[in-house]
C-alpha cells in the first residue's frame, strides 16, 4: 500500500448548510461535481460532503451514530496568529468553538471547532515541524 489519504468524506445531515459552511464560510474552493456530493481540493487530497444517510447506506452501516466518533481532522498553520484567525473565521461561519486557542502540553498552540455536523477540527501551530505547503492561505 502506498500510504496516503486521497479523500476525506463527511456524512452530513444538512447538505446545503454544510456546503455553505465550507465554501462560503471557510472559503474552500468547490470542484464541479454531481448534485448529491460536493468536493473541495485540499492540496493533494479532497474533502467530500455526502448526505449522512446516503454515506451510511453506501458503507452498509446504520446512520444513527452519536457522540464522539473517535476522529478529529487537523489543519496545521504557520503561526499562533493564524490559529486565531482560522478559528475566528470558522466561528463566524457557524462553527461551534470547542476549545479556545491556547498553548498546549506538546509545546504548540491549538484550538478546536466543530462544524455544523459536529465533526471536530483542530487548528494547530507546531513550532517543531511543518507539514504541507506554506502559503498565505495556510
Automatic annotation (TrEMBL):
Entries under Gene3D superfamilies matching the protein: 2,3-Dihydroxybiphenyl 1,2-Dioxygenase, domain 1
Domain VOC: start-end pairs: 4-126
PROSITE patterns in UniProt: VOC (PS51819)
A Pfam family the protein falls into: Glyoxalase
Domain of life: Bacteria
Protein name as catalogued: VOC domain-containing protein
Organism: Thiohalomonas denitrificans
Organism phylogeny: Bacteria, Pseudomonadati, Pseudomonadota, Gammaproteobacteria, Thiohalomonadales
